[in-house]
Amino acid sequence: MTGNLNTAGVWPRPPALPRPVFSDQRWLDAVFLHWRIPEAAAAAFMPEGVQPDVFDGSSWVGLIGFRMEQAALGRGPGIPYLGSFNEVNVRLYSREPDGTRGVVFLSLDADRLPVVLATRAAGIPYVWSRIRQWPPFPGNGGGRQHATGAAGTPGSRNGSAVGYSVRRLGATAARSNLGVIPKLHTAAADPLSIFLTARYGMHGRFHGRTIYVPNTHHEWPLFGAEVHQLSDGLVGAAGINVSGPPESVLYSPGVRTRFGRPRVLETTG
To answer: InterPro entries given for it (predicted)?
Structure first.
């Protein structure tokens, strides 16, 4: 299956979000690192009824760090303390028979234990970790001014290095340090960058059934970046083997997103 978008690099229109809105979130200072992997390697992790999405003959695994800010239930205000935290996830790319694209999370590290416990109860593979963003996010003890990026989006680092350090609990637990230097004068609008970031939902398992949780957001303000620091154990801990530098390195100052009503996939199993 070839999941390629057209060569013009046109950002796909987000589908209508099924109501009600379950959560309103802001994802800031997002770092995207991606490696090619064999389609068969990704297929082993796909929920029933879903197959790997493929670009340029390959599946892709992503290591993504960002700052969750002001996450809210429904359309309400951001939840104090619990609604703002650092997250680093490992994800694959999925596609339903009807063409609906999504992501499949292999792990999601977060530094808020109540968030981890609640999401794991819902079948989402969160892991409680210590995560440090560098430089610290404005208003999070770092003393930096709240910068503005493309399209007035807060969170931009204006070309300075931005990254995340993850340490899971335990002496032998996986760790990761990932950071990039954004190239804020180099907008990323190529088909691969769009393929990896224009995702409007996640596929997962819930009580033995495959579900799709939809979301919607505007086009990411997306920029090329170069690796500043990378020492990762999270991708391997998730069961995927990669080697060498990532083929795709991207940065976004952030985007606002909303999640809608999940649906259950009808499968033949």
So the answer is: ADC_dom_sf (IPR023375), DUF2071 (IPR018644)
